Amino acid sequence: MACQDHASYSECGTACPLTCDNYDSPTVCTRECAVGCFCNKGYVLENATSNRCIPRSDCKKSCGSNSSYQACGTDCPLTCDNYDNPLQMCTEQCVVGCFCDEGYVFESATCKRCMPQSDCKNTCKGNSNYTDCGTACPLTCDNYDNPPLVCSKQCVPGCSCNKGFVLESAASKCCIPLSECKKACPENAQYTDCGTACPLTCDNYDNPPLVCSKECVQGCFCKEGFVFENAVSKRCIPQSECKKACGLHSRYTNCGTACPLTCDNYDNPPQVCTYQCVAGCFCEEGYVFKSATSKRCIPPTVCKRACPDHSKYTECGSACPLSCDNYENPLRACTDQCVPGCFCEEGYVLEKDGSSRCVKQSSCKTRCSANSHYQQCGTACPKTCADVTNPVPRPCTLQCSAGCFCDVGYVLENAASTFCVKESLCKSCEANSHYSTCAAACPLNCRNYRHPPQICPLICLEGCICNKGHVFKSGQSGPCVPVSDCSDITED
User: How is domain 311-363 classified at the CATH fold level?
Assistant: First the structure.
């Protein structure tokens, strides 16, 4: 597939590509694979409706009131929630974007409106007021002219937008005037309150979805004769230009057959077929369509779905199947995607990583993780980091337990973990905390435990984490205190 300058094709790109409008403030995004062209590193889309990739430095640097553009801003800007207690730990890096002028702070981590620090003391932020009985379905820029037909009838206490104002988005706490809601459509598109849930694209216009939910979707839709370039792009192009948008192992032709080969008929082609030219994407030589309704081209050898013993074919298997090497300790991080193929039946796992042979879990030779070994007669109460930091004797049954046990000098991370860590690392944690090899990137503290961060990278970090029922007093490290002790800290 041919891509624009500074872009490359990917089978698993992000569903929320960065643009000049959001690259310095990414939004919440679904963990799904999007197929298409994506900007190379250091480049972003010119805007949400464009497919042109430009250097981040070329983005227009216009900022809102009480803010200015900075080429090297902080990764931890001050907000109404933290200006009187700035984060003690912050990555030392330059962040390009708009930052509040001196004396002003962001309204919140998700609302990038700059307001005077003195206004932060108000219970509710600008253009909103507190109510004991607010709606569970507040109006936003996305739904104000088409409110939800179904909404739970309950009182929700909190801040509600003033009359004439709506939330900028469902995830935002920022109230803006109705007039500022963006509803401008790109070229060759027009706004409608009742568009289809399955719009035509270059990938499906000659084979529209047979099943589509019958609902009204408001937004920008292509004018007659135009279709979306792909499922991710909102750029509308003439159908005649779609020849550049064929999938893998397929190419566009103005005169294809009306009876293309598929997995169902490639070994017994149709004897009768209408003699006509069909324009569209057709499989390259050596490939056939997966089915009559699918436009995915695959080798005929893949069509045969005969699977080895104790396995069966599925269209949506895991990208990280269980094997004798990992079934006792499955991968913590695995891409959330559908992988077609043969997968082991319940109770069976792959003989080893990369193998196609399925064996019973019980027949797997026990494999232990790093810094541990197998024992037929180990203790029923293995030592953990909690025992190191708080060496209080505890009762334990005198019995043999078969399994993996930590090597000398190592202990379990915690009672529920199978990871062994050095005892010396446990001792470095303060009271009411313990060492972990997979700590959260955004730990809870007295200032955010009621409203945890909505955006946080899904990664494992090594370090000390608070015990259950405790949070950091402030920031991302330091002493851990019971949640009940946070009242004096969180109240202003």
Answer: Laminin (2.10.25)
